[in-house]
Amino acid sequence: MKVFKFGGASLESVERIQQVAAIVQSFSDQQLLIVISAMGKTTNELEKVAHNFYLRKREIAAQLLSNIEQQHLEIAEKLLGNRENPLFDQLQQFFTEAEWTLGEKPVRSYDYYYDQLVSLGELLSTAIVSAYFNQAAINNTWVDVRDVFRTDDTFREANINWEVTQQQVNERILPLFKQTNIVITQGFIGSTDQNESVTLGREGSDYSAAVFANMLNAESQTIWKDVEGLKNADPKLFPNTINIPEISFSEVIEISYYGAQVIHPKTIKPLQNKQIPLYVKSFLNKDLPGTVIREEVDNKHLPPIIVLKKNQVLLTITSRNFDFITEDRISDIYEMFHKLKIKINLMQNAAISFSCCIDHNSEKIELLMKALHNDFKISYHEGLELLTVRYNQDGMLEELSKGRNVLLEQRSPVTIQRVLK
Ligand code: ASP
Ligand code: MG
């Protein structure tokens, strides 16, 4: 069995969905579990619905939702040729449920409502793709992943309950392959034991696919993207990027941790743990070789890898009374970061100070400064970039930092990181 994942870009138009169908068709003699995310930029649009709903701007929210409805109905009608298919009742039901949510008075957390509304994107896209495939004789079964992925109630960043989910995969997913070779389901979403919808974090569909691959003991996972494969830098930011034909799990987990946006960082562990190779391929041309990510790859052949994380803030936290920043103080500071869910991208400590580079989030930074204010003086630089270079070659780092101020630098034999202004 193979696991495929198709992202928003591969579903953003009728033509692209037809292209996806052609890819799947060419594998249809095999068992495939297909994980799909929301079409195009639907998730961003749904975020706006949730936002307006929570601000009690109900009319704007309803209008935005209705735009999303029209877009989906139009695509579905073009794919299926008419509105006779039972799909249209199913879509109607999803929209009615979302409208009910919009009719509620927001009494719970924003994150809760966010998940109830934003999870709609994947339900719509999978229902449409599944109905279209069936009509095109690509026989498949549609599954609501909320009946399979059981999570805790950390809305917007839900954590999977592995034991329960594995059991549901065995009981609810495996038997479906007796009916059809293809099972289609949603990425990015799941459900609590109270049947509340959750999401797993933005861009989380890669991770959903990896969880399935792990639990189904799949032979491989393939992420179909609009790029040829993994490159040594983001082609949107750098010219002359190089394709990487093969790379190890550990290398990819490092670079996605530093901010490379190719693959969701949580994707690697479930695959590595079961030694399942991950292919990254182009849905625009399935015959291009793409990239394979697996355990044993010789890093000697890798080109320099460049990751640039924008919109960074450098905080320097200095103890007011000249206390050393030792274990106990670091542990207090860390506790605050943990409480506020602030991820540290780079850190360094000195005698009485601690510096770290984090993503810009004004709200969280303000809360952090308030909490630490009594004991620490905090200085703050914003609008920075965090540059990471692995396997640096002569002159490359200097070239990339030319004309910039280096506020902090860290080096290991393989990795160099610089905070640039
Ligand atoms: N649709 C979700 C998002 O845009 C999940 C994903 O694309 O992986 O974040
Ligand atoms: Mg998406």
Automatic annotation (TrEMBL):
The organism sits in which domain of life? Answer: Bacteria
The processes (GO biological process) annotated in the record are:
homoserine biosynthetic process; lysine biosynthetic process via diaminopimelate; threonine biosynthetic process
Q: Which NCBIfam families match?
A: asp_kinases (TIGR00657)
**What residues bind ATP, as annotated?**
5-8
One GO cellular component term, please give it: cytosol
Pathway given for this chain reads: Amino-acid biosynthesis; L-lysine biosynthesis via DAP pathway; (S)-tetrahydrodipicolinate from L-aspartate: step 1/4; Amino-acid biosynthesis; L-threonine biosynthesis; L-threonine from L-aspartate: step 1/5; Amino-acid biosynthesis; L-methionine biosynthesis via de novo pathway; L-homoserine from L-aspartate: step 1/3
Note the InterPro entries from the entry.
AceGlu_kinase-like_sf, ACT-like_dom_sf, Asp/Glu/Uridylate_kinase, Asp_kin_monofn, Asp_kinase, AsparK_Bifunc_asparK/hSer_DH
The EC code for this enzyme is 2.7.2.4
Give the range the annotation lists for the signal sequence.
Answer: none
Q: Which residues form a coiled coil?
A: none
**Annotated ranges, domain Aspartate/glutamate/uridylate kinase:** 2-282
Q: Which SUPFAM superfamilies match?
A: ACT-like, Carbamate kinase-like
UniProt keyword terms in alphabetical order:
Amino-acid biosynthesis, ATP-binding, Kinase, Nucleotide-binding, Transferase
Q: Which family does it belong to?
A: Belongs to the aspartokinase family.
User: Reaction catalysed by this chain?
Assistant: L-aspartate + ATP = 4-phospho-L-aspartate + ADP
The name on file for this protein is Aspartokinase
Binding of substrate occurs at: 43, 122
Q: Name one GO molecular function term.
A: ATP binding
**Keyword flag Kinase:** yes
Transmembrane segment boundaries: none
Please give the CDD domains that the UniProt record associates with this protein. Answer: AAK_AK-HSDH-like
